[in-house]
Amino acid sequence: MKILDDTYYGGLICHVNYNKEPPFKLFMKMVNNPSCRISKISYSSLKGFILKLDIDRPSNLDNLDEIAPFLGLNIEKTEYNVPVFTLVIKLVVLSRTETNMTKYISLDEKQFNKQTDIYSDFEKEAKTQSEIYKNTINKGDPVCPSLVAIAKITDKTVSLEFLKLLKKKCGSITESENMISYIIKELENNSSYQLGVIVMESATEYKTVDAFFKGISKESQYNILCKLIFMIIRLVNETGYIHCDLHLNNAMVKYNDDSKIVMRLIDFGRVVYIYEKKLKELIIQNLTTKLWYIIYAEKNYNKSKGFGDFSRVEKYVHALEDIDGTLVEITNQLIDYAKFPNTINSDCYRLIQNYDPSKEDLLPFDEELKKKMVKDLNYELTKLDHAINSKNIRKTKKCEQIMHFIDYCNNKIPELKEICKRRPGCKIDNDPDIRILETKLKMYEVKLQEEDCENLFANRNEPERVIVGEPEVAVNRNIDEAQGNIAEIPQKETRRERRKREGNLLKLKEEQEKLEKLKEEQYQEKLRQKEKEKRPWYRLWGGNQKKNKTLNKKKKRSKVKSEKRY
């Protein structure tokens, strides 16, 4: 067993009698307590199972240090003198590479995908959580719980004995027992798997946000969501980390004695540091959409209307320092996406999750995203072409449409170039899709100058009038009077003239169809004759017979001529 005691910054301390004991050994002492109970917190994470350890408070306080060897901060945050009877346990299956395990099936028959964690990532998670706790404890309200102990159990027999001990504390037919049985089965079926254990501080009153929402009012739900947004913003602003596996089971909440909300985020196995590889702009633009999608759209709380009033969120934001405007941008985007949940883009979360800091590129190249953008741009250019060539749109409206499509394409093509840059060995100048799109756009811009739409677009608020006889044509009064075009406007066509013109068109159309039909018949007859001549019986019999007839005719003619001579 490898115990990593120097990787965490704790919010708990050991009792004076156990100062020299390692924290994991004291944790095992709590597990072996007869009153110890293990219950479920969350199993929906991709790589972990989160449990809670509870010990009954003794009536006799004489030997309290043997039952509760850890001490936590008091309410005033001044001294470590509060005995701890509750801890959070995270169990992870470790391997050398990320591999898919069998699907976890809960007691209510829901299926969840599960993966193993890499050894280095497991240790990195502990260091990250301790760093986040250290950077946010200064204000007396840390974002995450502190670490108590972390261990990597390399011996398979020891890990199985440890899991069986936890299983005994679960009780029969419980979700926690089902979770531990699943881990035991995975370790037994694969010899290379190992067990990772992270122990964190907790409190008895804490529940997951998902469980806390049951039975409370909409107003209380709204306040909890505001607090969750506040914790996300604090995490970004004070530590530079983004939680990439955030859902309602990875946030724990309770009410303190003053009826204020206290919240802690857990499960930091998937995080991104925004200042590494200059990811700041990417996070602000993309990941905030997914963060709000998780905490807002996942539960469909009044999804169509939204909550409307977000002034309390802004009050939370003003309590923090914002050096370079990052916090304001993130908050504004969270509120915008909350007001308009249908505009949420879920693809950005998949891109961020695939981010690997060890690689040179910020994000992997996504071929499907590129194809989708090229398809959208081609569609917009088709609509632009229709607007340019259409004669049934008045000129000012036509120019507005053209300018709109050109601005859209000018904004989207640079985004497409940024996506193509992620492809290894890519040269933007040689990409055929981008070259075709840019060529089309330049062609339409030239057409725009020829139509002189820019001047009309600038003066689009000037008065317009519709000419009698052409109801869809609008001409500027000043231009008409200057050019003298008003007198040359054709009169409206009468009903008799229109019927006569339509009748003539029908006759011409019928004659044209007859000619085409005749040509087609002649052409088909020629084809049939050619096919007939290619047949062998025609050449042997029909062709010779034809030749014999012509020869007989010639002979008769020659006989008649000779008889006439004599």
From TrEMBL:
<dbReference type="Pfam" id="PF03109">
    <property type="entry name" value="ABC1"/>
</dbReference>
<dbReference type="InterPro" id="IPR011009">
    <property type="entry name" value="Kinase-like_dom_sf"/>
</dbReference>
<feature type="region of interest" description="Disordered">
    <location>
        <begin position="527"/>
        <end position="566"/>
    </location>
</feature>
<feature type="compositionally biased region" description="Basic residues">
    <location>
        <begin position="546"/>
        <end position="559"/>
    </location>
</feature>
<protein>
    <recommendedName>
        <fullName>ABC1 atypical kinase-like domain-containing protein</fullName>
    </recommendedName>
</protein>
<feature type="domain" description="ABC1 atypical kinase-like">
    <location>
        <begin position="197"/>
        <end position="282"/>
    </location>
</feature>
<dbReference type="InterPro" id="IPR004147">
    <property type="entry name" value="ABC1_dom"/>
</dbReference>
<feature type="compositionally biased region" description="Basic and acidic residues">
    <location>
        <begin position="527"/>
        <end position="536"/>
    </location>
</feature>
